[in-house]
Amino acid sequence: MTLREPVLQPVRITELRPTQMTVGLREVEDKRRIWRERDGGEAQDFLGRHMIPVIKGPKNRLYVIDHHHLVRALHDEGQAKVLVNVIADISSLTQASFWTVCEHRNWVHPYDSKGRRCATDAIPKKIGDLVDDPYRSLAGELRRCGGFAKDTTPYSEFLWADFLRRRLTRQQVDADFEKAVRKALKLARSSDADYLPGWCGPVDA
User: Fold this and answer.
1) Rounded distance, CA 78 to CA 184, Å?
2) What is the number of other CB atoms lying within 10 angstroms of the CB of residue 81?
3) May I ask the CATH class of domain 134-193?
4) pTM for the whole thing?
5) What residue spans define the domains of the chain?
6) What is the CATH number of domain 2-132?
7) DSSP string, the chain
8) For 119-131, how does the pLDDT look when each residue is reduced to its tens digit (9 = 90+)?
């Protein structure tokens, strides 16, 4: 049964479970800086306008299906609770059936920091345990720079991250992130990327 039910009682971030294995910590840091610029009523208003979409799974656990970077940033900043929006209640399923449904609905992304597919039981149980994937940060920065358009395709930034992972070494990304972004922009404008969501087309030199 599909729901869209805001839970007005704040939920502890430590009780929320992720549906992916990684985040881009550079992107998390950006969201932490934005959060620190807010105070008092502005912060509460921000939380009210950014309810976290979740699904209710077995044992009534709440699984985050979007905005992992924001939730991680709030957690790292010491924010204890967030408001959530229950997209679906499939708590009656077994754990195995739950993950099967999640996969078919594009609610889970069980890929590690090297882009390798893993078993769903390898997904961290806590938001604070999400692992850094520098290529996800690179993809996020690439989108902000106009390298590709925001798209509704689930996990579109991870698809771009995987594209970049095959073309830029981890050493290149770690050694000079800004230079890696410039290289990523050039790659994004090539026809090699035309299968990716939000591709903006080639740009003549």
Assistant:
1) 33
2) 15
3) mainly alpha
4) 0.91
5) 2-132, 134-193
6) 3.90.1530.10
7) -EEEEEEEEEEEGGGEE-SBSEE-HHHHHHHHHHHHT--THHHHHHHHH-PEEEEE-GGG-EEE-S-HHHHHHHHHTT--EEEEEEEEE-TTS-HHHHHHHHHHTT--B-B-TTS-B--GGGS-SSGGGPEE-HHHHHHHHHHHTTSB----STTHHHHHHHHHHTTS-HHHHHH-HHHHHHHHHHHHTSGGGTTSTTB------
8) 999 999 999 999 9
